[in-house]
Structures are given as structure tokens and as C-alpha cells.
Amino acid sequence: MVESPSSAASRRPRRLTGLAALVLLTVPALAGCTVQDAFAFGWPQTLPTPQSEEMFNLWIGSAIAALAVGVFVWGLIFWCIIRYRKRSDELPAQTRYNLPMEMLFTVTPFIVISVLFYYTAVIQNNVTKLTEDPDHTVTVTAFKWNWEFTYNDTDPDGDGPAEPVSASVGTSDYIPVLVLPTGETIRIKEESADVIHSFWVPDLLFKRDVMPGFTNEFEITIEEEGAYVGRCAELCGAYHSMMNFELRAVSSEDYQAYLGHLQEGMSTPEALEAIGQDPYATTTKPFDTKPNSGEAS
């Protein structure tokens, strides 16, 4: 039985739809990730701060807008290929001007750019703004090739230490741990003892350079307790890749107890253990500096 051209044409859109659905399901599977991971477009889904959530939403919105434009353009291309494919040697009608189409292609990009610029400016201001009176202030000092954290808190209720406390000075066999409270505004002040470094916690979706002779500042509010890996994101010398730290987010009560233990003279591991936390970093490991030891861990 010979199939009529009309029935074959009616099945073609269904085949294309099925093929597109198969591709959407197959690509995440071949990539070894869930559909949720695939539609995060490569960004972490752990969003411990309001700032990281805003930046994540901006990224997702931008990616969706880009995909929408791409699908529209691809659709036009394939529609033209199918609709205006050569059927005979007769030359089709030539259109010299098409004012509505030209207006569409001129105005639409400016609308897309304006919307993206607006949301980028708003979120950038939210991420970089500084409050007049943060709840806590911590000084991060970067040096080749490790970190020192100084807690500058003076608790207005008198429960915390009145003087700055330096702790978590990293070494080649000790990963420094930066302990911060959840649910409170924390100002990070960055200083460098030598060259340019960069303070980066990937889960915060934010990093800022640490420059010699200049103090950089930013603020965060961590909403989820946990351990978050930290890195140096600026090439700073031979052991740049090993310049790690850990951000440990704890409850406000545990944070105050931690500062009190530091004031009493405890080391960072001892103070962490005293508040029921792992005494050493859990998200990254120190590197081995022994000669002929093979690759660094």
C-alpha cells in the first residue's frame, strides 16, 4: 500500500518532536548528571547565601533567554530550508525590503540587552553593597601560599572577645578553617602580605582579589550550616594550586563559643572540637612537600 504524501507530512512534526525529546533526555544521561544538574548549566546548586541565590537566578535567566533566542533563530533557519527549498528552476519572488522584519531584528536585541543589563546592575549592587554596621568583621590575610584569619568581633552584649583574635594560620600540612556564623551579616576584609591573591569559595558564586597595599571588602550572610571548600583564584606562584582553605558555617551560639575558646588560648582544631565540629578541614587536604613524594594530594 502506497502512503499518501499528506499522511507522511502529518507524521513528520511528530517525529521531530520525539527526536527533540529524546535528545533532551539522552544528553543529561550521557553526561552522567540528573536533569536538575543539566538545567543548572554548570553552576553549583548549593546556595548558602542570598547573594549566591541571586547570581544563580541571573545565570539561569540569562541561559534561558539565550536558549530562547537560539531556538527562535534555529527555527527560522530550518523553516526557510524546508519552506523555500528548490522545487524547480524557476526563480522565486525576490523581496528587497521588509520593514517589519527589519524592525524586529533591530529592536528585539536592544530589548534583550536592556533587560539583562538592568538585572545585572541590580544584582551586582546587591552583592557588593556594604552595610553601616555588620554583625561581624573578619580580616583575611593572604600570603604565599596560605591564609590567616583574624576575628575582629566585639560583641555588644559583652559575651564575645573584646580584642581581635588571630587563628587558622595555614601551613603546608594544615588547611586553615575560617569559622563563620549563620544568619548574620559578616564583613570580610582582605589584605595581602605579598602578591595578588583571590579569596574564592565556589559555593558562594563570588570571589574577590586580595591585593597588597589595598583592603578589599565585601559582605555575606550564610544561611546554611556546613563546610565549604575555599581556593585562591589568582595565579600567585609555584604553590598557587595548593592554596586552599575551608569555610565552616556554624550556628551563632557555636560561633560565640568558638571565639571564647580562641580567647582562652585554644588552637583552631581544639576550639572546633570543643563546639562539636570536626577539628580539621573536611573538604580539602594539605599538600605533601617532601622531596620525591610524587604528586601532591
TrEMBL record:
Keywords: Copper, Electron transport, Membrane, Metal-binding, Respiratory chain, Signal, Translocase, Transmembrane, Transmembrane helix, Transport
Membrane-spanning intervals of the chain: 55-82, 103-121
InterPro entries: CcO_II, CcO_II-like_C, Copper_CuA, Cupredoxin, Cyt_c_oxidase_su2, Cyt_c_oxidase_su2_TM_dom, Cyt_c_oxidase_su2_TM_sf
Stretches the record annotates as Disordered: 277-297
Reaction catalyzed: 4 Fe(II)-[cytochrome c] + O2 + 8 H(+)(in) = 4 Fe(III)-[cytochrome c] + 2 H2O + 4 H(+)(out)
Residue ranges annotated for the Cytochrome oxidase subunit II copper A binding domain, each copy included: 133-261
Molecular function as annotated in GO: copper ion binding; cytochrome-c oxidase activity; oxidoreductase activity
Residues in the signal sequence: 1-31
Cofactor: binding comment: Binds a copper A center.
Cofactor (UniProt): Cu cation
Any single biological process term in GO: ATP synthesis coupled electron transport
GO annotation, cellular component aspect: plasma membrane
Protein function: Subunits I and II form the functional core of the enzyme complex. Electrons originating in cytochrome c are transferred via heme a and Cu(A) to the binuclear center formed by heme a3 and Cu(B).
Xref: PANTHER family: CYTOCHROME C OXIDASE SUBUNIT 2, CYTOCHROME C OXIDASE, SUBUNIT II
Name the UniProt record assigns to this protein: Cytochrome c oxidase subunit 2
Species, as recorded: Stackebrandtia albiflava
Lineage of the organism: Bacteria, Bacillati, Actinomycetota, Actinomycetes, Glycomycetales
